[in-house]
Amino acid sequence: MHMEAELLPVAKAQLGEGPHWDGLWEELYWVDIEGKQLRIYHPQTGREATFDFEQMVTAVVPAEGGGWVLALQDGIYSFNGREKPKLLARIEAGQPGNRLNDAKCDSRGRLWFGSMSMEGKQDAGAFYCLETDGSVRKILDGVGISNGIAWDESRGRMYYIDSLTRGVDALNYDPKTGSVDGRTQIFRFGDDEGIPDGMTIDSEGMLWVAHYGGACVSRWNPVTGERLGKIEVAAKNVTSCAFGGKQLDELYITTVSGNMSEEEHERWPDAGGLFVARPGVQGVRANRYSGKMD
User: Which CATH number fits domain 2-277: 2.160.10.10, 2.120.10.30, 3.30.1050.10, 3.40.50.300?
Assistant: First the structure.
C-alpha cells in the first residue's frame, strides 16, 4: 500500500497534533500546541471551531459526561467550552522546563499521557496515568519525548513511543488494573526516516506511525516488525494520525508549519495543514475519559 494524503481546506497550524475522532458528534478534535488552540473540524461542512488558551494545549480527549479533558503545558484540566479550564492534576511542578505532550484514554477511561523537555534535555520527561479517581501514577521515567500511544487488548499489549529512541515499544498490559510491564522495542526507524511521533492502531491490529521529519505515515505489523505500507504527506514534519469518519476508514493526519527553514517552507508549502487519506482499512473507536472532572 502506497498513496498520498489529501490536504483539507482548513487553516494551517504552527504545531498540529493530537487528532481524536468523536464518533458521537462526528467531528475531529485536534490541537495547535504552539498556537495554544483547540480546533474542532466538522467534515460534513468543512468548517472549524476553535478555542484559545493562555498556555500550550498538547492533547484533547472528550469526557463521558460532556466537555473534554485537556493536557495543557503544566497539567491535566477539564474544559466545558464555556468557562476557563479547571485543573485536575498539576504535573511536574518542580520542572518548569518541561511540558506535557501526547495523551489518550484506554478502554476503562484512564488518561495516559507523557511529558518532554522544552530545553532539549534528553531524558527529563516521563509517562503517566491519570486514574478515574483522579490519582496520578508514574509509569516510566527518563523519557526523551513522550509520544504515540495505542492498545491492543486482544493481545494484552500497549504500544508506546519515546521519540528519541527512534523506535516503537510494546508493553504487557492488563486493562482491568492498568498495569504494564515487559517493555520491549519492536521496530525502529532508520536514520533517514525522521523520528516516530504520534501513532494509532487499525481494526487488524496494525500500527500507523507518523514520521516527524519523514513526510509520511507508515503502517507496521507489531508482531513481526514488518513495514506494510506508507502514506506520503506534503509536509516535512508529520506529527500524528487518527482514524475517523462514519466508517472509521479515513485517516486524519496532523503536521507542523514551524521549525523549518525558508528553503523548507518553499519545498513544503502545505506544512501545518490537516490531511486525510483513505487507506482501505478501518480504525478502532477512540476512548473517552470517564474519570473525575472536578
Answer: 2.120.10.30
